[in-house]
């Protein structure tokens, strides 16, 4: 059923209907559309535009529809164009012509902008919960391997020894930034466009402030033209989700490498691996690979929406209908990837012996030699040169740094006394890195404690917001 028709003498051509139809994807906005209709109804009633009797009938029908949409008893049909027209059909089927009353003072333009904000807030809160679950899995693993020496890499080459718990914890910091962004985004997205009408507000005695409050928004759009055309919240959400995807992809890449036969550090649980249809020995890290691969589509969704918004005239243009599928897809994608990665992290075990054996290899203790000289007041540039000579010497003799003789050390630099041996151990290198955020066991323990309290605070913050949102939805 079209929501217009008075001035038209023909039905839209099939091709037009097929092109412009959105109900098959925007149907998921139905609960938010019904909830905002209830808020709009209250205002129509309190302003006297609808009698109490009519308002009561519509309210009852809207509540029935909420339940029927949830249970699937009411669904869209082949002739519905979008979620708004399908729900108006539902209302009219129940009430006859008074079912069309809610369109007073409201346009699909402010309606869809409101619905999409509500949906995005709901989905973003769910995403935050899933990110927190992954952080908890990372923190549990980090605590488990908080005392396991391994080697860290730069340029994928052995760099310096680090505790493996330190490696795992780094990912939780990245997700902290994502949660921070989500919280900022929530504050900025909490603006109600309802009341903007088609673009200019309304001549009817409505109260956009009242509907904003009823729907849990902090503010009301300050400009009705901007209110109906602002999709910054969509683009920003897509950026946040793409960034989460990037963080997941880096975990994915790390897991793929650590699970290779060459590394053999990570052993992913069978339940989070897949096999090969031809090679019976294979155990493939598909979760890690999909985490890596899905980042591409999340970035694509962001790019697509930014391109659609670029140069778009104000106020509403049908182009804006193209905001939904990418947004839905990004939320859906992360709803799949986050729990899978969480499970993969939680069930992976790491080979302590292999990591410990790798810790001093590749002359990863060379910085210790340079730092030793710096403590003896040798300028770092000279210290670096001397440490480099020690590496060259050890390499030419086919030995490790700690196997260099006292005499050879002294010949490289007189300040390289036998005391150098005290720092030429993985343990010495690790325990000396006590700076804030460093890899010393005490520093890592402190880092994990801080992270834990930060994650707990995020968890409390988001669960309060989830509760408030679901309270609003069921009001
Ligand atoms: N399905 C439309 C969308 O998603 C709803 C708004 C339609 N507004 C209009 N003036 N045709 O954007």
In short:
With 475 residues, the chain is mainly alpha-helical. The chain has 18 helices and six strands.
Describe this structure in words.
This protein has 475 residues and is mostly helical. It folds into 3 domains: 12-103, Fumarase/aspartase (N-terminal domain) (Fumarase C, Chain B, domain 1), CATH 1.10.275.10; 107-146 and 160-205 and 220-356, Up-down Bundle (Fumarase C, Chain A, domain 2), CATH 1.20.200.10; 360-423, Orthogonal Bundle (Ribonucleotide Reductase Protein R1, domain 1), CATH 1.10.40.30. It is 62% helix and 4% strand. The protein is built from 18 helices and 6 strands. The strands form 3 sheets. The protein has a two-stranded antiparallel sheet. Bound molecules: arginine. Residues 363-430 form the Argininosuccinate lyase C-terminal domain. One of its GO terms (biological process) is L-arginine biosynthetic process via ornithine.
How is this fold's topology laid out?
Layout: H1 14-20, H2 23-26, H3 30-46, H4 52-71, H5 83-95, H6 108-144, E1 149-154, E2 157-163, H7 164-189, E3 191-192, H8 208-214, E4 219-220, H9 224-229, H10 232-258, E5 266-267, H11 286-309, H12 324-347, E6 349-350, H13 352-358, H14 366-375, H15 380-397, H16 406-412, H17 426-432, H18 441-473
Parallel strand pairs: 3-4
Antiparallel strand pairs: 1-2, 5-6
């Amino acid at each position: 059923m079209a929501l217009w028709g008075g001035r038209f003498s023909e039905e839209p051509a099939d091709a037009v209907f097929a092109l412009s139809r959105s109900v098959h994807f925007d149907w998921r906005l139905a609960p938010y559309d019904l909830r905002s209709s209830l808020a709009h109804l209250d205002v129509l009633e309190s302003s006297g535009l609808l009698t109490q009797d009519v308002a009561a009938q519509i309210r009852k029908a809207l509540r029935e529809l909420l339940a029927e949409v949830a249970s699937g008893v009411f669904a869209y049909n082949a002739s519905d164009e979008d979620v708004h027209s399908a729900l108006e059909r539902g209302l009219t089927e129940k009430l006859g012509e008074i079912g069309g009353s809610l369109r007073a003072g409201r346009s699909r333009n402010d309606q869809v902008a409101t619905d999409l904000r509500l949906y995005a807030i709901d989905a973003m809160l769910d995403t935050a919960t899933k990110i927190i679950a992954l952080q908890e899995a990372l923190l549990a693993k980090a605590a488990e391997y908080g005392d396991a020496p391994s080697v860290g890499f730069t340029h994928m080459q052995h760099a310096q020894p680090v505790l493996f718990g330190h490696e795992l914890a780094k990912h939780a910091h990245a997700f902290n930034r994502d949660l921070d962004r989500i919280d900022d985004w929530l504050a900025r997205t909490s603006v109600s466009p309802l009341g903007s009408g088609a673009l200019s507000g309304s001549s009817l005695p409505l109260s956009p402030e009242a509907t904003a409050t009823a729907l849990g928004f902090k503010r009301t759009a300050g400009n009705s033209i901007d209110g109906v055309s602002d999709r910054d919240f969509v683009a920003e959400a897509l950026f946040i989700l793409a960034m989460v995807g990037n963080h997941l992809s880096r975990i994915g890449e790390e897991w793929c490498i650590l699970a290779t036969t060459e590394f053999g550090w990570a052993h992913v649980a069978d339940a989070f691996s897949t096999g090969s249809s031809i090679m019976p020995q294979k155990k493939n890290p598909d979760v890690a690979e999909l985490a890596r691969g899905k980042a591409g589509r999340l970035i694509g969704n962001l790019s697509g929406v930014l391109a659609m918004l670029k140069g778009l005239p104000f106020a509403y243009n049908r182009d804006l209908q193209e905001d939904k599928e990418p947004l839905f897809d990004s939320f859906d994608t992360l709803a799949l990837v986050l729990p899978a990665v969480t499970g993969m992290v939680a069930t992976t075990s790491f080979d302590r012996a292999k990591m410990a054996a790798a810790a001093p290899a590749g002359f990863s203790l060379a910085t210790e030699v340079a730092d030793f000289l710096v403590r003896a007041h040798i300028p770092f540039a000279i210290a670096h040169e001397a440490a480099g000579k020690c590496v060259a010497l050890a390499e030419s003799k086919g030995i490790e740094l700690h196997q260099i003789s006292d005499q050879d050390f002294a010949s490289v630099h007189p300040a390289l006394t036998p005391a150098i041996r005290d720092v030429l151990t993985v343990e010495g290198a690790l325990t000396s890195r006590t700076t804030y955020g460093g890899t010393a066991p005490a520093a890592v323990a402190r880092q994990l404690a801080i992270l834990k309290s930060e994650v707990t605070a995020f968890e409390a913050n988001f669960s309060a917001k989830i509760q408030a949102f679901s309270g609003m939805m069921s009001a």
